[in-house]
Design a protein that fits this description.
There is one protein chain. With 197 residues, the chain is an all-alpha fold. It has a domain of 134 residues: Orthogonal Bundle (Hypothetical protein af1432). Helices cover 53% and strands 0% of the residues. The protein contains nine helices and no strands. The radius of gyration is 19 Å and the shape is globular.
Amino acid sequence: MMQQVSFKRMDEGTNEDYALLHQLEDQFVDELPGRLLAALQGLEHSLAGYRVNRLEHSLQSATRAEADGADIEMIVAALIHDLGDDLAPLNHSQLAAAIIRPYVRPEVSWVIEHHGVFQIYYYGDAMGGAEQGFDKNAREIYRDHPWFDSCERFCERWDQMSFDPDYPSKPLAYFAPMLIEVFSRPAFDPEITGDAK
């Protein structure tokens, strides 16, 4: 029988109840890399219309990041940057940033959070421009931000380039150890994220 707490309301929980939940939560957190890999695999059947599926786009982005000399955090960020497409299509950048934020330096999560705005630069005019809500220069509000150049590079060299059906991207199995390494770190380690739990 599955272990369960005794309470029906949180304010009725006992020390034993919360010790059980803490143990189960730790186990659940430890299994996060496997769930992320499964979610990435699910991108194979996500948003249609492009010449490659969303998984292939993610693999191409990560492959390009690695080939460009990016570190493991940026490579994994490139891999998961569109993971929010299925559940948050209108704010997928923010969802992906929230997923990775506890495990990487602030620059990486900032880039992922803002890549959606920066991407408009490459297609805004073709979508009707600012009059239609696609101002290619929307990213300019961040021009003085210390990570503007990093996000611009992410989008220009990895993200917007990765819709090529002939590009030799590396498979998900190649990137799995990197993803596992990053998402197996202690969450909100101040040595990495610069903040406390």
